[in-house]
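Page 42, continued from yesterday. The earlier attempt failed because a stray header line got pasted into the input along with the sequence. Redoing it now with the clean sequence only.
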Amino acid sequence: MPDPYGDQALLTSAMTTGYDAVPEQERERLRRYLEAVVAARSAPVHTTVAFNAVYFGYDLGGEGYGGSPLRLDDFPVITFGECAPVLPVGAMVCVATGSDPLYAEIVYREGAHPGVSAHGDVPAWVSGAPAGAKGLGQLESGDAPRRRELLVPDLHAFGSALSLSPAQLHRLRTRRRWINGDGHVVVEVCYPSPEAARRDDLTAYADHLVTTAREQLLSPFVPVSIAELAGGTRDEDLWAGLLGLLDTVRGVLNSSEALRTWGHYAMTRTSLADCWRDTGPLGGDDLRSLSAAVEHAAIPAKRRYGLISPVTVYTAVGPRLRGFPGATELLMGVGYAAAVCRANVALADVVQRDSDQGLFENGARITLDDAFQGGGVWRSHYPGDAEPPGDPLIPAVRGWASTLPASPEPEPVSEPEAELDPVDLPLADDASLGPGELLRSDADNIVWRSPLRLAHLIDGWFPLHRDAVRDLCRSPGPCPTLRLELHHADEVLEEKEAAQDVTVELGDDSGRLTGILWPSDFFPGLMLEVRWGLEGTGIRMTTTCLQERVQIGDRETGHCYDPRVLTREDAPGSDRHGDSAAGLGPRQLVMRTVRRCGLLTLDGHALLDRSVLPSAVYGRRPALPQVAALESAVAELFTERVLEPAIGSRDAWGQPHYPARDGQPTIPLVGYRPARRRVIRPWGGTEPGGEGLRGIQLVPGHLRRLRPGCSPSEVQRTAFREHCRRLGKADGWALPYGYTFVTEHTRGR
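This time it went through. C-alpha cells are written below.
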C-alpha cells in the first residue's frame, strides 16, 4: 500500500499544475492511497481532508496523524467566543478549552441558520441566502458579514495519544461551551469581507494554509514540502502550488471507481451499499422514506372544487434526519456528516432515476436549491411543469432569489444592429513601462539595463541610453552602422543573430538601433544588459539567467524579465507579427483587456473594473449577446483560477483603486496575477525536441520512514538541516526519530 512517508513520495511536482498534467502512473499511486484513506475514516473525506492525509502523512494503521512527526506547536490555537474566525473544512486546530487542549481536524461544515426548524422546514429566503442575510431580501450593513455555521471536528484524527478519554469528552459535551451535546461546534463566523464569504471550499482552505496555518504548511516534517514541489515559499508560489495539488486530489477522488462523491465529500461505494441494506435507523428504509417525503412535500391535498395554487416547500436534510426514531446516537460526532452525505446521495439517485430533470410523474419538481445550508436544502414545487427544466442537482438558490425585490424595468437602450468589432486601445501607462536603468558610465563603458518591448520585436529596433546618444553625437564623422553582439545566457544563437550589423538613428536627445534581427525566443519584458564601449564601434547585449526556469501564464523562461511589461505586452493577440484584438474569442478578449487596461502593480498584477470590461473591449457598449459572452468567459476564467475576483473602490472622480480605500464605494474587479511556477527540467533532454534520455523524473527532497533498526547518515542529517533553512528555519532542526531525508534527485519513470 502506498505511504506518504514511503520510498516513493505520493505528491510530485507535476501535481502542482493540476490533475490534467499528472501522468497516469502517478495518479494511480495517489488513487490507491486515497481510496484506503476514505475506507479507513468514519466520516466522508472532503477534498481538503484528502489533501491533508497525503500532505501531512495520515497513518492507515490506526494512529492517523499521530503516526507522523508533525509538531503540535505549529497548529493554530482557536478560542471560540461570541464570534469565531473562519475555519474551512480541513483546518487542523488546537481548541483552547481552559483545561485539556482539544486537537481536531474539521471534516465537515454546513450552515446552521436559526430559522431552520427542528423538522427541517426552511423559510424560502434562507435557502441560498448569502452570509449577512437577515431577512427577506435584506443584508446586514458593513463589510464583515456573519453567518451561523455548524462544524464537525474529528476528535480522533490524531491517534489515541492525543484523543480525549470518554470521560473528558463527556465533560466537554455536558458543558456545551466548546462543543455541543453532539460533539459539534456551532459558531457565529465573522468573515473579513463579502468576497471571503463567497469563496469555494478549496480556495478558502488554500487561503487558510497560506495565512493562518502557514507554520503548519511549511513544516519540515511533512513527507514532501510544498516549497520543494512549487519551487519557493513566496505567497504566489504557495497559492499556485496548493490550488494545483487540490485540483489533482479532487480529480483523483472523482476518477476512482471505488468511491462516490457528493460535492467535495468522498465515500466508498461499499459503505453506501451497506447503508441501503441496513434495516435500522437511517438505513435504507429511512432513506426511502426521506425521498418520498421530499417528493410529495409540495403536493397539496386533493380538492373537489376550485383551482390549486402553486406550492413550494424547502426541506433541509440535516435537521430532517433527526426526526427518525433512533437517529440521535448515530448523528453524534462524525456520524452526522456521514448520514447527511448518504442522504443527499440517496435523494440525488432518486431524482436522476425517477424523474425527467427533476419533474416526477405526480407533477412535482424536485431540485437541490442550496448545497450548504442545513446539510443541503431540497426544493419541492407543484405544479412543476410550469417551470423551465434544468440540471436538478446544481443549486439554483431560488429561495433567496424569490424574496429579492423585483428589479425596475430598465430604460430602453438602443442596441447596435450589428455586433461590434473589438478595438485596440493604447496602453495608458506606456511611457512608464520598462524605463532604462543606468548601471555604469565612466571613461571606458556605458552600461544600462532595459526590458525588450513588443514594438522593438515587431519593428526590429532598440532605444539607446541618452549617455550613449551624447557620446555618439560627439564622435567625429557619421556613424550609420554598428556591430551588435547578442549573448543569450545558457543558450546558443544562430550566427546571423549572434553578430549583426545594425543602423544607428540619432536625434537631438534620443537615438536607437534599427534593423535588429531578434532571436525567436526573445519576448516582451526580457531584460537586456547593454554595453557600449566608448573606444569601439560595437555594442553588446546580454540576457541574465534566473536561478531556475519558471512558468508565467503561458510563457516559460529561464531568464530575467520585467513582470509589468510581460503582463501588458505578452497578452493574447500580441506577438512579433503584430498587436491586434481582431479574431480573438471572448476568453482571449477578456484576458487581453484585463492585462492591457487594468491597474498595474509592480509585480505585474493587473486589476480591471468589471463594469467597464465590455466597453474596454469594444470601445463602446456592445450588443447584449457580446456582453453575455464576455460575462460567461469571466465566470469560466474565475472557475479555472486563470483570473480572480477582487474588491476595489472608486473615488469621486471615477478612478478605481486597489486595495479599496476607506470611505469610497466598493466595486468588483477582475484580477490577473502572473503566478510564477518552477519548471522542472532534469538532465536528460526533456526540453521539447531535445536529444537525450526520455522519461526522466525529478524527485523533490522528502522525508522517508526508516525500517526498524536503521538510522540516517550524517550526510542526510546535514541535508535535512539545510532543507529546514530553505523553509525559513534559520537554525535548522534535527531529523525526527525513525526518519531520514532523501535529497532531490532524478530517476526514470
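Notes: The longest strand covers residues 102-111.
Reminder to self: strip header lines before submitting.
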